[in-house]
Specification:
Strand content: 15-25%
Largest sheet: 8 strands, mixed
Structural class: alpha/beta
Strand order of the largest sheet: 1-2-4-3-5-6-7-8
Number of helices: 11
Number of strands: 8
Oligomer: single chain
Order of helices and strands: HHHEEEHHEHEHEHHEHEH
Helix content: 25-40%
Shape: globular
Length: about 300
Amino acid sequence: MPLSRRRLLQSFGAAAGIAGLGAAGVALVDAEVLPGRSVLNHALGRCDARPPDAPRAPAPPPVTGSFRSAARRREVGFALSYPPGYAPGARLPVCLALHGYAADARSAVGAGGFPEFLAGALPEGAAPFALAAPDGGDGYWHPHSDDDPLGMLVDEFLPLLAERGLRTDRVAVAGWSMGGYGALVAALTYPGRFRAVVATSPAVFHSYADAKRVNAGAFDSAAEWDRYDVTARAPEFAGLPVRIAIGAADPFAEAVRTLRDRLPDPGAVEISTGCHDSDFWRSVAPGQVRAISAALAG
């Protein structure tokens, strides 16, 4: 994709300009020795994810509420998104939606445009399903000494959904960024519980030191990292219904490639053009919605 002068000046400032970087300068930006990698990715078209390949339709607004969580030791908000024609109390299978860092339940049920694609035409034999998201905090969805979002998700939130009529015997889990990592941890912690596990742009780190550098609150200790290191535990994904999608220009792509190479089925990972953004998430959402629908239909 050709670089426009306007985009380059916007990206790196009129004084310097990207043209002055040269190949060596671009390499330094790519290596994050110089700032501007995200801007460079956009300028070079690395974030130009393919357009979604499925029809969309308006979706009803989510139903929201809250409950007291013993596992999280606080009041926890939640959001439920029903497909058109269904209302609270409907006997639908459910896909848990795990939000990313500094996000919440309401953003999770809308992530990737899932409600709009679910409201569109599903293939014959696929099942409509509800999206259900709780607030999981910023602790990367695994248990901590003072906060257990994963225990909340399975031991408290799923029973709440069952009380509301949803079919918690037919459950999938999907997540984006931190939530994508959380979906992988959920699959390992509760093998056999989920009919589909979808991780989009999962925030997978190379090491404990890498995790601490990016997000100091992700893991409380090296021992906690070891317990929830999905790459070290890659063989345990054997037989689990896992799908991972990430953009080639995503900052987590290299760590996900390492995970892919250690998985029993590397074909579970799809790496395509895109960045760590909603454009990429929407580009892969139609296939994910179809896969979840098919898995929940049986």
